[in-house]
Design a protein that fits this description.
This protein has 526 residues and is α/β, with parallel strands linked by helices. 31% of the residues lie in helices and 17% in strands. It contains 18 helices and 21 strands. It has helices at residues 21-24, 26-39, 68-81, 87-93, 97-104, 109-116, 120-132, 142-145, 150-163, 183-188, 205-215, 227-235, 249-252, 256-265, 322-332, 342-352, 435-440, 450-456, and strands spanning 13-17, 42-46, 59-61, 94-95, 136-140, 174-176, 241-245, 268-273, 285-288, 297-300, 305-309, 369-370, 394-395, 414-419, 445-448, 463-467, 472-479, 487-491, 504-507, 514-515, 519-525.
Length: 526
């Protein structure tokens, strides 16, 4: 997030696009609802499904799945054509406005309505709400990133925020909501194929030299592979061994038949997790790790806040903290990692990561700090880009709409989109072990619009078959207006009805994120 969670309540307008906030980020959703209820903030919801947040919205735009770029371009078209842009901000703080304006010219509300189904007047109303707000906050999640054009949609969000002067101000910003509790921290620590800690590029010779000196080994300047590239590499025989830690691709990755074949082709698969999950069942070696309450360390949340976690109980059996397992393995393989504690590792992080340099255990004993925090006297950064962007001026990037990789046809006439429900977390490795959560949501349900259900002879609670080009799943139907006509929604928490047997592994060419949110399916009563 460019801004802080608490700042959501200071916004005059909130654009929530591709985020089912109340079910995926319920604490943050309470901030949104308080902003609406207590301060009169205007909420714009952009989502194909009738998510709970719609009840609090000033306006709900219901586009066809996969048309986010067209909708965002349409909002900007209205803002510019009606003179609602922040001309002074554009002039002093951005580059590329003229080219962006040329691209946006054709995205009139009427044109966008043809692409997305969003009524032209509704688009105008939403654009005026955001364009006239003194402080506008954009919230987004995987509803815009898990597409073959996800990176382009994020760029559109940035364009929209910048042309309205909403980046670098309190209560504004472009705010991605992270999907798990320490995803931000994992990325910050270099758990990406192209960076070291703090997003220092492996291809940068100066950065690489620093880490070579710190670690006493030569390092490659060649970026590694992304998840889907690794899976393809396993099938091609290029990847022989895979070490999976805290992840369950046998339920979370698209086209699970493909993933299963990749797992079976490996010479060595290691699964390191707190429970044996679907992926662990294919592992040659399982390493039991400690959960959050059984170890010391830090988590970094979605607002860039680094917070302490403290060991409360002993880990069961032979489970150990992840860092201790990795250090022990590295030592046995010939590279001695002689850390004695998570605290010692944090000191190393402080020494090699500029944005974390001032975030010490001593300073976050009570309340965490938000990076960047470049020294021990720095108070942390509440919101980013206050006076200027890292490169000086922000880049406005023209983006053209392009359709999703797989669209409905006569054989597969529906769109399938996937997501989560309130009561379960990710692949449910933990949440399905909770009796209370299982009682609240015991099995997978596929949402289908009543008109689609009537045409297909599908009744509430009956088993239906959903098929794509990659597989078939049997699941119980939930007939509801929450799903738009022509679209089926499934959650991916349940292995008995694994939605990712169906999903399309087509990738965003830049972010390499699979297109979980749009694939073509057919539906029939079982």
């Amino acid at each position: 997030m460019t801004n802080s969670i608490e700042e959501i309540e200071q916004a005059d307008a909130i654009l929530a696009i591709g985020t089912n906030t109340t079910e995926n980020h319920p604490v943050i959703s309470s901030r949104v609802k308080r902003a609406v209820r207590n301060r009169g903030a205007k909420l714009i919801v952009v989502d194909p499904r009738e998510i709970p947040l719609v009840r609090h919205a000033a306006i709900w735009l219901r586009p066809q799945a996969g048309t986010n770029v067209a909708v965002l371009n349409g909002l900007m078209n209205v803002i510019i054509s009606e003179g609602l842009e922040d001309a002074a901000y554009i002039e002093t703080r951005t580059d590329g406005y003229d080219e962006l304006k040329k691209t946006l010219a054709k995205y009139t509300p009427e044109y966008v309505e043809q692409i997305s189904g969003v009524p032209a007047e509704a688009l105008r109303t939403a654009a005026r709400i955001y364009g006239t707000a003194e402080k506008g906050s954009i919230l987004y999640a995987m509803g815009i990133t898990q597409h073959s054009h996800g990176t382009e949609a994020v760029k559109c969000c940035a364009n929209l925020a910048m042309i309205c002067g909403n980046v670098g101000i309190e209560g504004g910003g472009v705010n991605p909501l992270r999907g798990q509790n320490n995803v931000q921290g994992a990325c910050d620590m270099g758990a990406l194929p192209n960076v070291f800690t703090g997003y220092q590029q492996v291809a940068d010779e100066k950065a690489r030299s620093k880490f070579e000196e710190a670690w006493g080994v030569p390092l490659s300047g060649q970026p590694g592979l992304t998840i889907m590239e690794i899976m393809n590499g396993a099938l091609e025989g290029k990847i022989k061994a895979l070490y999976i830690m805290g992840e369950n691709p046998m339920l979370s990755d698209p086209d699970l038949h493909h993933v299963q074949e990749a797992m079976k082709s490996l010479d060595l698969l290691i699964s390191q997790d707190i429970f044996l999950n679907e992926t662990g069942e294919y592992a040659h070696v399982v390493l039991p790790s400690a959960c959050f309450a059984e170890k010391d360390g830090t988590f970094t949340n979605t607002e860039r806040r680094v917070q302490r976690i403290r060991k409360a109980v002993e880990a069961p059996g032979t489970a150990r903290p992840d860092w201790a397992i990795l250090a022990g393995l590295a030592t046995r393989m010939g590279y001695p990692m002689q850390y004695q504690s998570a605290h010692e590792i944090m000191k190393e992080i402080n020494s090699v990561t500029p944005s974390y340099k001032g975030i010490t255990y001593e300073r976050i004993e009570g309340v965490g700090l938000q990076w960047p925090c470049p020294n021990i006297d720095h108070p942390g950064t509440k919101y980013l880009h206050k006076d200027q962007f890292t490169r000086g001026k922000g880049i406005l990037t023209p983006v053209e709409y392009r359709p999703s990789e797989e669209l409905p046809n006569d054989e597969y006439p529906y769109i399938l989109t996937t997501g989560r429900v309130l009561y379960h977390f990710h692949t449910a490795t933990m949440s399905r072990r909770s009796t209370g959560l299982v009682e609240r949501y015991p099995e997978s349900l596929a949402e289908i619009n009543p008109r689609d259900a009537a045409r297909a002879g599908i009744e509430e609670g009956k088993i239906i078959r959903i098929s794509s080009r990659r597989g078939t799943v049997s699941v119980k139907a939930h007939v509801t207006d929450r799903a738009p006509e022509g679209t089926i929604f499934m959650n991916f928490h349940f292995k008995e009805a694994a939605a990712n047997l169906l999903t399309n592994p087509a990738l965003d060419p830049t972010g390499k994120i699979p297109e979980y949110k749009v694939c073509a399916v057919k539906v029939e009563a079982a």
